[in-house]
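$ ./design --mode recover --in tokens.txt
reading tokens...
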């Protein structure tokens, strides 16, 4: 129960902290209330996500609780003298392929409120607001939604005014960087210590620290696992920029509505624009949501903003600038050509898996409370957030909100679009990809030249369900597997959008490297791999069942555990409905290459079902390390990056296994297959070798020339076996069509398949690769029937 005799220390002066300070001092005018933030509240720029040029204010929620709360907040925005000067009811214009208006209308009706929400056909929508959105991207959009009762707020001004009012009523504002929370011997919170070594104490400590929260808790008591954020939320960021608006229709833009677009869904969350009539500007935000994962001194993996005092918020990679610029193209089409975004900024926020706030006592520390996690939609509640924080402190918060905002509630797997699935470290590599695309196809950063696309079947596509991405992170594959710069975001819907855009009839999905056995062999790692293999296979089967004409899949095995893998093969081909279209095998499993005699039971089981094996490269491994660990042994405690370093001392220093190691590991395992006579001993198995065989083709002559009598790999034998059992896909980060002439010396065009390697090859780069493929393969064959066979015919025959 909060009382006027207690002292309150609020850490963080964003919307949660500022609103809490104001409502607390109103409720308890005689209480001692201190609001601490690293920036002055009138500083020209602050790190808080709440400090911004402008923010959207709209009550359009599918979640009726947030609709109700926002309608309450909007009353203050419209009427209260503190916030009314900063609110502009300009309307909101929604462009989305998802029809969520019906549910929102139903919610408004339940609450007895005039929604102000209208639906327009695309043709009618183009005429709204003077036609400023007539050139927007309306791909797969049936209706456009306009809410004329919504608008935007002047963000930094409204936030500063809130704090000024709190200070005027008696709140003490302290500018200081908080180094850690302090606790007594019983673990109860007693206050904070600043970077200058000063202590500030209070009987109640409230964390409104946003993206900094997880790191602050870890820094404060690294040994206390019960205190940590864990999987409750993550520090995530989005990028924004603004452009001055000039010209004859400038007033229609800066006095116009907020624009929100969810097209195309494959790019991520929504992008959009917010007008600023006073400054005569438009602010745009991008669709890429990302994190910044780092290893804390206590050994945990947390996401936190960069350590710079300003979170390096103005150091924006070019890939993120391009993401912001794309918002203008998405909403205004050719009308965006006059825009020139400037003052790009990275905005850090705390995001929960369910997008709900946390307003709750901390269960592991008496007198410690948490009021944060705006999840990219909290700012609009500025006038009322503090009211509910005070109720939480008083113990009078209604039960539905207690459960909804609890620190210890059950969190689902994150599926919403605002959840970060990319790493900040990944984004400079994204720029590298974009530059390659631009050079490869003579693109400019301002736009692309589109080439018509023929129907195709993609045999080399990957799926990355959220639970698998999380398993990678939990196993330490950071920022991404095999030294990759990140874990790509993926959903079936995003993949379908990509397929539609590229005229891909069907994609055969597989789990990419490192597969499902994610840690150095040990008994705990084996148990996790067996469970994960079953989980990904059942998931892929469900996707195939939902989209049978669009997706096939290759099942995964928990190798190097042979017996468990044989069991999983039986389960896949007898219990799953629909069944897999084949099996994916990594080029090695911690040193167990594909010619290893221990794998015979696996091949025997696959031979019996006439399986197709899709080989996928992974990081190489020495035989010494394969013998050193046991699938039944203790966990050796070696992280994936350390494992890569053990096996790739040179490439490990320079970067990513896919760059050099993958192509050569495919060649190595191919040779191992033939030296062990696997293709002849298990002749009913078909094989797909990726990336045109990687480093294999240039070494085939050496494999044949240096063949020993006991193996006898003659050229004729090799060609006959390849013709009977082997296929080669031409996927790559860009097409490996350069290898076609060399491949055709060993195999017929009927053994060549098309692939994209998405999403590990980014969607945009795969699109560019498709165009390059079309050009190169037509030049290589100069025969329409052969080209069509490579694009789709050969795969159609292989999979029946």
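writing sequence...
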């Amino acid at each position: 129960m909060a009382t006027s005799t207690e002292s309150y220390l609020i850490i963080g002066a964003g919307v949660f902290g500022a609103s809490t300070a104001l409502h607390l001092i109103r409720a308890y005018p005689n209480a001692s209330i201190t609001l601490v933030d690293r920036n002055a509240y009138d500083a020209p720029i602050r790190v808080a996500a709440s400090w911004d040029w402008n923010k959207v204010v709209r009550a359009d929620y599918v979640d009726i609780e947030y609709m109700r709360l926002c309608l309450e907040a909007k009353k203050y925005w419209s009427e209260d003298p503190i916030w009314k000067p900063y609110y502009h009811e300009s309307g909101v214009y929604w462009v989305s392929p998802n029809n969520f208006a019906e549910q929102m209308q139903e919610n408004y009706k339940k609450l007895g409120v005039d929604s102000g929400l209208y639906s327009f056909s695309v043709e009618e929508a183009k005429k709204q607001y003077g036609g400023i959105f007539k050139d927007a991207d309306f791909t797969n959009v049936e209706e456009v939604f306009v809410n004329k009762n919504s608008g935007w707020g002047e963000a930094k001004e409204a936030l500063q005014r809130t704090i000024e009012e709190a200070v005027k009523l008696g709140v003490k504002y302290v500018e200081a960087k908080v180094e850690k929370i302090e606790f007594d011997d019983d673990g109860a919170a007693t206050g904070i210590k600043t970077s200058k070594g000063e202590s500030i104490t209070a009987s109640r400590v409230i964390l409104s620290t946003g993206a900094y929260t997880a790191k602050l808790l870890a820094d404060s008591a690294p040994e206390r696992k019960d205190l940590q954020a864990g999987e409750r939320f993550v520090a995530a960021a989005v990028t924004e920029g603004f452009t001055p608006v000039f010209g004859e229709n400038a007033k229609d833009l800066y006095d116009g509505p907020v624009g929100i677009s969810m097209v195309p869904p494959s790019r991520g969350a929504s992008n959009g624009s917010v007008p600023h009539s006073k400054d005569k500007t438009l602010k745009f935000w991008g669709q890429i949501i990302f994190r910044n994962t780092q290893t804390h001194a206590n050994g945990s993996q947390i996401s936190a903003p960069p350590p710079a005092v300003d979170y390096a918020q103005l150091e924006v990679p070019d890939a993120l600038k391009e993401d912001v610029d794309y918002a203008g193209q998405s909403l205004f089409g050719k009308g965006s050509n006059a825009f020139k975004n400037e003052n790009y900024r990275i905005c850090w926020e705390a995001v929960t898996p369910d997008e709900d706030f946390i307003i709750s006592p901390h269960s592991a520390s008496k007198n410690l409370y948490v009021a944060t996690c705006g999840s990219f939609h909290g700012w609009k509640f500025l006038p009322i957030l503090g009211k509910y924080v005070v109720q939480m402190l008083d113990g009078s918060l209604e039960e539905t909100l207690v459960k909804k905002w609890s620190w210890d509630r059950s969190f689902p797997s994150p599926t919403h679009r605002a959840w970060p699935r990319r790493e900040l470290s990944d984004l400079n590599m994204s720029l590298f990809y974009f530059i390659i695309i631009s050079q490869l196809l003579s693109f400019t950063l301002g736009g692309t030249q589109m080439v018509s696309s023929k129907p195709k079947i993609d045999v080399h596509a990957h799926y990355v369900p959220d639970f698998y991405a999380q398993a990678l992170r939990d196993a330490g594959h950071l920022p991404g597997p095999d030294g990759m710069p990140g874990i790509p975001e993926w959903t079936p819907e995003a993949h379908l959008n990509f397929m539609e855009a590229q005229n891909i009839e069907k994609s055969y999905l597989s789990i990419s490297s490192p597969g499902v056995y994610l840690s150095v062999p040990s008994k705990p790692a084996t148990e996790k791999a067996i469970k994960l293999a079953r989980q990904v296979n059942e998931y892929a089967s469900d996707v195939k069942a939902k989209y049978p004409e669009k997706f096939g899949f290759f099942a995964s095995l928990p190798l190097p555990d042979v017996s468990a893998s044989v069991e999983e093969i039986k389960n896949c081909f007898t219990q799953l409905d629909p069944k897999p279209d084949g099996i994916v095998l990594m080029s090695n499993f911690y040193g167990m290459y594909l010619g290893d005699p221990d794998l015979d039971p696996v091949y025997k089981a696959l031979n019996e079902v006439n399986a197709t094996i899709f080989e996928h490269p992974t990081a190489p491994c020495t035989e010494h390390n394969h013998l050193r660990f046991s699938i039944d042994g203790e966990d050796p405690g070696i992280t994936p990056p350390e494992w890569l370093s053990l096996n790739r001392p040179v490439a490990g220093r320079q970067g990513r296994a896919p760059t050099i190691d993958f192509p050569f590991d495919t060649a190595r395992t191919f040779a191992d297959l033939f030296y062990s006579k696997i293709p002849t001993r298990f002749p009913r198995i078909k094989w797909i070798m990726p990336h045109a065989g990687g480093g294999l083709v240039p070494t085939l002559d050496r494999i044949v020339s240096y063949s020993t009598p006991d193996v006898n790999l003659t050229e004729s034998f090799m060609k006959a076996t390849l013709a009977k059992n082997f296929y080669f896909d031409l996927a790559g980060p860009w097409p490996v069509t350069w290898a076609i002439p060399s491949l055709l010396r060993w195999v017929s065009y009927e053994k060549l398949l098309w692939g994209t390697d998405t999403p590990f090859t980014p969607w945009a780069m795969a699109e560019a690769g498709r165009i390059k493929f079309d050009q190169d393969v037509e030049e290589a064959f100069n025969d329409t029937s052969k080209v069509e066979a490579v694009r789709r015919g050969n795969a159609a025959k292989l999979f029946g």
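exit 0
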